[in-house]
Every structure is written in structure tokens, then in C-alpha cells.
Amino acid sequence: MAIRYLADISPAEYESARRQLSTDLPLTHKEWEHLRGTRRATLQGSGFTVLDYRVDPVDYGRQCDAEHSYLGLEGLWRFAEEQGMKSAASDLGNATPRNRDCPTA
Predict the structure, then answer these.
(1) Whole-angstrom distance, CA of residue 28 vs CA of residue 69
(2) In the 8-state DSSP scheme, what is residue 102?
């Protein structure tokens, strides 16, 4: 099953992230969570496993500046997808295989 990553912004960072990033983000964190829930349901309904990716608004802003792209909602979804995949690939590359027959310490 394919994995998709869903942007997540902590409640503590949401208001500052909304002011910094875009006016097309919902006004409140509660509305943000509702929007994320709708997107999650849509993706899951299409057969995807959905994992959260905690977005650092500063990192997202830097990437948008570097790419001269708009700090909007669609870009935020895309950023979470890209960063989530990079993070997962990095984790797999750093993983140490374990032999099932050998007990771990």
C-alpha cells in the first residue's frame, strides 16, 4: 500500500505559521484539523496509508523563497509529501537490519 504524508502544524505554532505562510490556511487550528481530517479521509478512501509529517513553518518558508513559489496550502501539502518521503528514505538508509534469530540486547 502506498504512503502519503499529511502536513501537520502544532497548535502552539499554528497562529504564527498562518500569518507567516498564507491567507488560505484556515483561521483556527480547529478548522485546520477539520481540513486535515477531510484530506486524510479522501486519501485513505483512495487506498493510501496516511502518515503525519510535522511541518516546520520556517523550513517551508525557506523552500518557498528558494523556489520563488507561493506560500499557500497546496504548496504546504506538497512540501509535507516531499519532506515525508525524504525522511522515510533517510530512515531506511540508516536502518540496521536485524536477524530474527538473534536476541537483541
Answers:
(1) 24
(2) S
C-alpha cell at 35: 481540513
Residue boundaries of the structural domains of the chain = 3-94
**φ/ψ (deg, to 5) at 88:** -65, -40
Predicted TM-score (pTM) above 0.90: no
Cell of 57: 513553518
Are 8 and 53 spatial neighbours (Cβ–Cβ below 8 Å)? yes
Tens-digit pLDDT string for the chain (105 aa): 699 999 999 999 998 888 877 668 899 999 999 999 999 999 999 999 999 999 888 888 787 778 777 777 888 898 899 999 998 887 655 433 333 343 444
At 79, is the secondary structure helix, strand, or coil?
helix
CA 96 to chain centre: 25
Grid cell locating 61 = 518558508
